[in-house]
Amino acid sequence: MSEERKVGENFDASEANSIFDKLKNVEGKVRSKREGKFDNFTHLMQEAQILEKENKLDEAAQLYKEVIFALPDSTKAYEALINIYQKQGDVESEKDILKKAISNCTKNEDFKNRLKELN
Question: Is the distance from CB of 69 to CB of 95 less than 8 angstroms?
């Protein structure tokens, strides 16, 4: 690189592509398909399901709440949390979560129907 380069001369395509790829990676625009924030929530959901199977319902509920906090339209997390409250017989919490689910998951009619059944 000690020699002076002029526009259009001494163009090295592979070096330019390498630099371009590095810049894209720095900006976060190029990632592998498995990377990203949703992997963390998938792991949280899996952990919560394991805890639920082990009958550690309070711990599982906390993890489902974390998923809902970050992904407020996660119907699976709402369904799981509603089922936990149903198992625990906590009708008031079940109603509260159903109301939140209805407001955040507007396309899901099941939440509306379940709330009607509870009232």
Answer: no
Is 55 a member of any domain?
yes
Q: Is 11 part of a structural domain of the chain?
A: no
User: Looking at the 3D structure of the chain, how many domains does it have?
Assistant: 1
**Interatomic CA distance for residues 28 and 21, integer angstroms:** 11
Quick one: DSSP state of residue 72? T
Q: How many CB atoms lie within 10 A of CB 118?
A: 11
pTM confidence score:
0.66
Provide the CA 106 distance to its chain's centre, in angstroms: 18
Q: Give me the amino acid identity at 54.
A: E
Convert the pLDDT of each residue in 32-62 to its tens digit.
343 445 568 888 899 999 999 999 999 999 9
Per-residue pLDDT tens over the stretch 62-112: 999 999 998 899 999 999 999 999 999 999 999 999 999 999 988 889 999
Dihedral Cα 109, 57, 72, 93, nearest 10 deg = 60
